[in-house]
Amino acid sequence: MKKQWIIVLFPLWLTVLGGPVLNIAPETFGFGKYPANLQKEHVFTLTNTGDKLLVIEKVRVTCGCSAAEIAEKQLAPGQTTILVARIHQESVAGPYSKGIFIHTNASNSHVRMITLTGDATPLVTVSPLDKLYLGTRQVGQNIRQEFLLATSERVKFGKPEVEGSASPEITLKELPENQISLIFNWTPVREYSLFHFQIKLPVISPQGWKPVELSLRGRVQLKSEKIRNIRSSGR
After folding, report:
1. 134 & 221 share domain
2. Is 172 inside any structural domain?
3. For residue 4, is it within any domain?
4. Are residues 128 and 222 in the same domain?
5. Does one domain contain both 161 and 99?
């Protein structure tokens, strides 16, 4: 009589994992739409559902806009701890998705990710950009740069504060539809291998917002014909 063999195949999801196993609840959390000057945080629950010690080696964020703190780094079988994840105030603008990575000795995955999503509404949006490189300009040439500040509500600004290579003229002008024009004017009288201006615009109201910061960089050189004359006279 021939022997018959029966092979039973179990689905992969029925496989029982041995060793430490990390369970995260929830794995994704959304803050929705909110003013960008609010700090947001959420508490995630981490549980060792395995049969050996779970060691959390490190928690890694991907940018300075987020932070994470964990209460316990070693979990016995069945033990639970919490991870507090934060999005800092005024560190992001518009829709975002930020990952926080958890490195462990878990048998189900050595690296797990939790995700924070949201839509942070800034008080001020700057056009063309809040950081500009103006290229190479010439001595005696007027440098004029206009920024358009579009605000999500009516804003009162304080006097602009300027740090940098010289003393430029800064002009503010209110425009319709919650817009403000900021005009930078400066005529350099000498060469600069690199000039840099940092403009801070304090927010008087509404309260609770950081100053608006603008940055301009560039170079200033002598006019080309002057350079040729100087070089010629030096021969």
Report:
1. yes
2. yes
3. no
4. yes
5. no
Q: What is d(CA 51, CA 21) in angstroms, rounded to the nearest whole number? A: 8
Establish whether the linkage from the previous residue to 128 is cis, with ω within 30° of 0.
yes
213 and 130 in contact (C-beta within 8 Å)?
A: yes
Q: pLDDT per residue over 102-142, tens digit each?
A: 999 999 999 999 999 999 999 999 999 999 999 999 999 99
Same domain, 40 and 116: yes
For residue 211, give the CATH number of its domain.
2.60.40.10
Rounded alpha-carbon distances, angstroms, from residue 147 to 51, 108, 181: 60, 52, 6
Look up the pTM and report it.
0.76
CB 74 within 8 A of CB 68: no
String of DSSP letters for the chain:
--------PPPGGGPPPPS--EEEE-SEEEEEEEETTS-EEEEEEEEE-SSS-EEEEEEEESSTTEEEEES-SEE-TT-EEEEEEEE-TTS--EEEEEEEEEEE--SS-SEEEEEEEEEEE-SEEEES-SEEEEEEEETT--EEEEEEEEESS--EE---EEEESS--EEEEEEETTTEEEEEEEE---S-EEEEEEEEEE-EEESSS-PPEEEEEEEEEE--HHHHHHHHHHT-
At residue 223 the predicted structure's pLDDT band, cuts being 50, 70 and 90, is confident
Structure tokens at 34: 């909110």
